[in-house]
Amino acid sequence: MTARFHRPFNVRRLDEQRTITIEATDEERAELAEALEVLSIGSLKAEFTLKPWRGEGVRVVGTVSGDVTQACVVTLDPVPGRVEEDFDVRLHPDVAESEEVVVDPDEPDPPERLEGYEVDVGAIALEHFALGLDPYPRAPGVEFDAPADEEEADEPSPFAVLASLKNNPT
Q1: Total Cβ atoms within 10 A of residue 85
Q2: pTM value?
Q3: N or C: which end of the chain has fewer CB within 10 A?
Q4: Which residues are registered as beta bridge partners of 6?
Q5: Every domain of the chain and the residues it spans
Q6: More confident residue, 136 or 108
Q7: Extended beta strands in 7-146, E state
């Protein structure tokens, strides 16, 4: 994705909890809609709290929300929707890069590596906004009916043909 929702926050001297609200501009929403392959993003806002975590780390807890219009997967008609995603991200400089990531759905996500002293809270919000999009939006009352292929129904499967040759050698 080339479009960005860049909101860096310096956590070098974060010694107490900070509450922040960010909102995407009209231009950012238009670029993000194109990058996320949705028709439009009417609003995109994140409210979160930054707090120190385990000495040099930081914890970002919040909610990203927004209005979005996606294309129906069946008719391509516009489908309005709402994204509302909570997130809890922990970052720490001592987190080692590992090849294998084990994710347990019942446990919190593992901490991520904190590079330097800046946390891009916009990128965190955008990631969770994208995760909250409906992967298969449908207009109300629309059902997907697979077309019946009459030729396939009349033709025997290749395995049935082989079985008949085996049973009836000529």
Answers
A1: 18
A2: 0.77
A3: C
A4: none
A5: 8-167
A6: 136
A7: 8-10, 18-23, 40-53, 57-71, 78-92, 112-113, 118-120
